[in-house]
Amino acid sequence: MKKTIRDFDLLNKKVIIRCDLNVPIKDGVILDDNRIRSSVKTIKYAIDNNAKVIILSHLGRVSSEEDKIKNSLYPVSIRLSELLNTKVEFIDETRGHVLENAIENMKPKDVILVQNTRYEDYPDKKESKNDPELGKYWASLGDIFINDAFGTAHRCHASNVGIASILPSGIGFLIEQELKMLGDTLNNPKKPYLVIMGGAKINDKIPVIEKLVTKADYILLGGGIANTFLKARGMDIKSSVYDKDSISFASNMLKKYEDKIILPIDGYGSNAYQDGLEVSYSDMTNIPDGIMILDIGPKTIKLFSEYINKAKTVFWNGPVGVSEFSNFEYGTKQVCQTLKESGAIVVVGGGDSAAAAIKFGYKDSFSHISTGGGASLEFIEGKTLPGIDIIEEK
Ligand code: ADP
Ligand code: MG
Q: At a CB cut-off of 8 Å and minimum separation 6, what does 26 contact?
């Protein structure tokens, strides 16, 4: 068991909390503050326990001076201050006297947000390559390190692994919750255990599918992944997107797990990967020439619902259609609604599926929506996440 923030006496201590405040921002406006909200519990706990709270996070990627301007954490400091209902002092640098003096002058319950850790990536990738000098410098600013950034836990960076290899360390409430839901709950699922997978990148997801197919009672497939399986089954999917290199994987899966893998039977499509064009509807056996399937249809929803309604545990990764296009959001929305009504334990993992669930208003309808896209899939695959591995054991 990893140490958690609860295992430390925080009184008067300088506590560095690595959060994942990597939210989408356009022209200074935060488009989705979910990751900030998810970080509040740990930060609040540290404030309530009279720590001096120093927050680190990355935002986007920084490989030029312009990237720095685009990826300032300043707007995040404002939103965080609102959510915490307390002053958050924003330090517009990742090292130096201003930062050191501000920390020197902190009183218990004060909160500092340090500028984007990836400013250190320009020009020489110090943060992302876990430069030892950088980790050591950041560690010198605090007494205790708490990692609560699940979304970057699969990366070995200075702001997680670097600092944790020096300071006494623990995980925060968010990582604790992620480990509980993606780990304990899905490793010992109440049966029937159903997996729903969609999205486009089958190649990336092969290890996850291989892992899950042995644990799950059924796997429902949608999105581009389903196209690859339909093609492997010998169907004519016309212009639909599929992954040639994964056909043999898909046909092996179908042979080995024929009764477990459930494919769409109808769908909506269009003659280009674009929103707003004329929508075509057909059975999968009868897709018109020139059409690419971009969503699942009502017969498939009915079929999928029968499985969802019997399930006690569901893991869902990947939208079952191009849910970012309003013409093709139907299937993903219906899956969300059916999951909500099913009463099953529902865990959502994956960046786009989480974004879709939140966008369609299902943020509080499921047992857990993971804040880690890549990290959640790597964890489910059974890979070690370096940002968690480095944390002290109890
Ligand atoms: P997640 O981030 O949840 O793991 P992915 O990144 O694998 O999901 O997949 C999301 C992408 O899959 C979306 O951009 C969506 O447009 C695409 N997608 C879903 N269904 C289809 C489809 N039928 N054809 C092409 N792309 C699709
Ligand atoms: Mg994605």
A: none
CATH number at residue 147: 3.40.50.1260
C-alpha span between 338 and 75 (Å, rounded):
36
| 201 has catalytic annotation | yes
For 225-244, what is each residue's pLDDT tens digit?
999 999 999 999 999 999 99
Q: How many domains does the chain have?
A: 2
Which residues are near ligand 1 (CB < 6 Å)? 198-201, 223-224, 227, 241, 293-294, 317-319, 321-322, 324, 350-353, 373
What Å distances lie between residue 358 and 192, 343, 351, CA to CA?
Answer: 26, 18, 11
Q: Annotated catalytic, 135? A: no
* Contacts for 94 with CB less than 8 Å, ≥ 6 apart: 114, 115, 116, 117, 119, 120
pLDDT, residue 201, reads 82
The DSSP line for 350-391 is SHHHHHHHHHTT-TTTSSEE-S-SHHHHHHHHT---HHHHTS
Spacing, Cα 97 to ligand 1 middle (Å): 45
Q: Which helix (H) or strand (E) holds 149?
A: none
pLDDT of residue 255 exceeding 90: yes
Question: End of a domain among 125, 142, 173?
Answer: 173
256: domain range?
Answer: 189-381
My answer on whether 32 and 163 are in the same domain is yes
Asked, for residue 184, whether it belongs to a domain, the answer is no
223 is catalytic: no
Say how many C-beta atoms besides its own lie within 10 A of residue 296's C-beta: 31
* Catalytic one of 223, 351, 373, 387: 351
Q: Are residues 371 and 315 in the same domain?
A: yes
Q: What is the pTM of this model?
A: 0.94
